[in-house]
Amino acid sequence: MQRARSPSFYWLSSDSARSSYRRMLEIVLTATLIKYGGPTVVSLLINETPVILKGPRHIAMFGLSFMLMQATPEDAVFRYMCRSRIAQALMSVGCALYKLRKINFIATIWLSHDLFSLVGELCVLLLVLEAHGNLRKIEEYRAVGKLSLLGQYLVTSPRKCFKWCIDKFWPGFAAITAVLIAQEVCRMPHHQLEVFGPHLWYPGDGWSNAFQISAGLFLLWRALRQYIPLFFRSNSKNN
């Protein structure tokens, strides 16, 4: 699908935004929802206080970052990120490492004692990985007035949607499985994991470390696989 927004679609200094306070408010609320919507749902599901309510620091940092992005002349940051594959790849790697830490944290505080709770844990962990990206995709369809078409596609082409979900979500599911196995075979008692925090590396515990590395590799593949064909295509052109 083509990118739904032009370089100035979410820029507060664009003509369309400056001519309507409603449009400016919509831009701010959309950014806030995409930032905090998924994490808030996850926090409520695991009976934790949502990040947005944990103090002014998170809101202040988000607001500062948002305003710095908006303050760039001619939406320069967005234009550069659209143009630079290297910048996109580096940001994707950073997101992958952050997601690895996040699913370790959730897996540490959620204790699954039966099949039902394990299925619930898998769903929550998958939500941790996929909420941001899919909220952005839904917003792209909404922005161009095609959200109803997306709903019709889900209803009329369930087999294609199922195949898309398998292709989209299997790296994340594999990473989640590896993290759960890593924490299950870890020699450190689970209550100590809660005290010392979501470790990504367990000294002297080879199997746990191997599964953590596997989870990281799956998440890196999930983040970078869209850039691999572009890399080979550019190399073939150069040759």
Write a structural description:
This protein is an all-alpha fold and 239 residues long. 76% of the residues lie in helices and 0% in strands. The chain is built from 11 helices and no strands. The chain has helices at 15-18, 21-45, 56-71, 76-83, 85-109, 115-143, 147-156, 158-185, 190-196, 206-224, 228-238. The chain is globular and about 60 Å long. The two termini are 29 Å apart.
Q: Roughly how many Å is the radius of gyration?
A: 20 Å
What is the string of helix and strand elements? Answer: HHHHHHHHHHH
Query: Uncertain spans, ≥5 residues at pLDDT below 50?
Result: 1-5, 189-198
Task: Tell me the span between the first and last alpha carbons.
Answer: 29 Å
Q: Which sheet architecture does the biggest sheet show?
A: none
Shape: globular
Helix proportion range? over 70%
Mean pLDDT: 81
Strand content: under 5%
